[in-house]
Design goal:
Length: about 180
């Protein structure tokens, strides 16, 4: 019996290798060009964000870096797993930017179906339930930052979405250019 089992095991391993070799290969990436893949060339060149547009229903607000700098700011310190360091960001809480457009600051019922799509200049996008960025519901702070450690964000553009309490910064968006609030109806 043992020789038959060995032949079967070798066939299974060989078949798996053959299928793996025939499978299309995706280029390695960590989806946002950070971490171990930082030195690899991305499909889109880095374009610095220069304005932030936020939309909800039929309302839109666009912020230049100068107008944004005049808004009341908060500071948060978050551990950046890619940089292996604590970083201190200054920016505006996301809810402070959404509320003037009519996004409820105390959501309930159908309001809890609202989500936001945040996108960078490179097309990188992340989704959050509005409850995740709302201090009335969620303990972590979510900001649109315009400075880090007291300096311009630099290559991360004029705006960067940063969340306190994330295990790794996969949902942080550098070179942030838009936040769209939608409903999951």
């Amino acid at each position: 019996m043992a020789p038959i089992m060995t032949v079967v095991a070798i066939f299974v391993i060989w078949a798996g290798m053959a299928n793996a070799q025939d499978a299309p290969k995706a280029p390695p990436s960590d989806a946002h060009g950070t971490g171990s893949m930082a030195g690899m060339q991305m499909s889109k060149p880095t374009v610095r964000s220069t304005a932030l547009t936020i939309t909800f229903a039929d309302k839109t607000a666009t912020w230049s870096p100068e107008a944004f700098a005049a808004l009341p700011h908060v500071t948060l310190t978050a551990f950046n797993e890619h940089a292996k360091a604590n970083q201190t960001y200054s920016g505006v809480p996301i809810m402070a930017l959404l509320k003037p457009l009519g996004v409820p600051d105390k959501p309930h019922g159908k309001d809890l179906r609202l989500y936001l799509l945040a996108e960078g200049t490179d097309g990188y996008g992340v989704v959050f339930a509005v409850a995740e960025v709302n201090p009335d519901i969620h303990a972590g702070t979510a900001i649109v930052a315009d400075s880090m450690d007291g300096k311009s964000i630099g290559d991360d553009g004029a705006f960067k979405l940063v969340l306190e309490g994330e295990k790794r910064p996969a949902r942080w968006v550098r070179n942030l250019v838009s936040i769209k609030v939608k409903s999951a109806d």
